[in-house]
Amino acid sequence: MASVAVYNIEGKEVEKLELNDSVFGVEINEHLVHKAVVTQLANRRQGTQSAKTRSEVSGGGRKPWRQKGTGHARQGSTRSPQWTGGGVVFAPKPRDYSLKMNKREKQIAMKSVLSSKVQDDKLVVVDEFKMDEIKTRRFIEIMNNLKAQKALVVTKDKNQNVICSANNVPTVKTATTNEINVYDILKYDTLVLTKDAVAAIEEVYA
């Protein structure tokens, strides 16, 4: 079993924690990690974009000038795509971009990214992430103590003081254990987990 150091919010090591190899020590499946990211980004798309084709724009009922003898190119309608106010060629229409991924694949992808953070030494475990008040300056100080500037901070339960303190820090995102996803873990350099968050993740994915 891999073991990691557990730090307090002052950045001092307080103990060692054994990680479950079935969650934090699996072989990385790059294909399923890629599939999970593509699926997640596709499912974020609303698919509500729409533009009118030449059959949907108003006007253009009559031929603007006769076919021959004017010196102009022949035109059948003022609502053809080459006219100002005309329809759009191959106009985008509302569609569903969502993709599906089965539960087993999602679990393997999540275990893969968690394991990659351990392998790259980018996993920081904190005994508890406790803040008595909403204070951005104090939050930044804690992150500097943990040497985690661009980080995803994961707690087991919602801590309003931590969430609000992190809101004004553009390089940090907070989440609870039931909100984490493959894309966010990959997006941020460091993964900061509280000790009880590690236990909750192991309970779900082991």
Q: Notable features of this structure?
A:
206 residues; alpha/beta; six-stranded mixed beta sheet; 34% helix; elongated
**Percent of residues in β-strands:** 5-15%
Report the span from N to C terminus.
13 Å
Average of per-residue pLDDT values: 92
Spans of at least 5 consecutive residues whose pLDDT stays below 50 are none
**Assembly level:** single chain
Strands, helices and their partners?
Layout lengths: L2 E5 L5 E6 L2 H4 L5 H15 L58 H17 L3 E4 L9 H10 L5 E5 L4 H7 L5 E5 L5 H6 L2 E5 H11 L1
Overview of this protein structure:
With 206 residues, this protein is an alpha/beta fold. The protein has seven helices and six strands. It has a six-stranded mixed β-sheet with strand order 2-1-3-6-4-5. Helix 4 (136-145) crosses helix 5. The longest helix has 17 residues, at 103-119. It is elongated, with a radius of gyration of 27 Å. The mean pLDDT is 92.
Nutshell version of this structure?
The chain contains 7 helices and 6 strands, in the order E-E-H-H-H-E-H-E-H-E-H-E-H.
